[in-house]
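Pilot study result, target chain (172 residues):
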Amino acid sequence: MSSHRFDTNIAELKTYFNSVIDWVSSVFQDVENEMRGLNWGELYERFHTIAYNPNEVHTELRELYADFYVKDKKGIFEYILGGCIDTKLLNVRIFDDVTKKTVYEKQTQEAKSENTSNCPLCALGNDNNKQRIYKQNEMDADHVTAWSNGGATDINNCTMLCKTHNRAKGNK
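Predicted structure:
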């Protein structure tokens, strides 16, 4: 907009601006405070050729707004427009309980069959914990690839570690 501040004819700019507003209004039924300040022109350029079902978008938007784990409400809009793929936009860093339980049960079953610890790092050691089976509340969910290094917060990037190893691991 600032590059056009000295234009004498703004008809083309006004048409574009109205196109962006109309597109946003057709995709999102509600106006949210977090919509302010987003670069809607860029989002329009990237996503306006995709057909969206406003009812499905509305449902997804409500679910994400209600999700405790979503820390960046502004990222919800681009996340939805991009097909709900890039969870980094939501700043989700915590694994949900279902994921933790599923990974815990799988690791524990494998550990018992191999007679080793269900903490993969304890299993590598030579101490008393090499064969220890931890209870789920004695373990933490950990990103295999660190979140800060682009690791997703999903079941494919989750491992359960004993609390000692998870705290020692840090951002490695």
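One observation from the pilot: The chain has two domains: 2-90, 97-169. A full batch analysis is planned for the follow-on phase.
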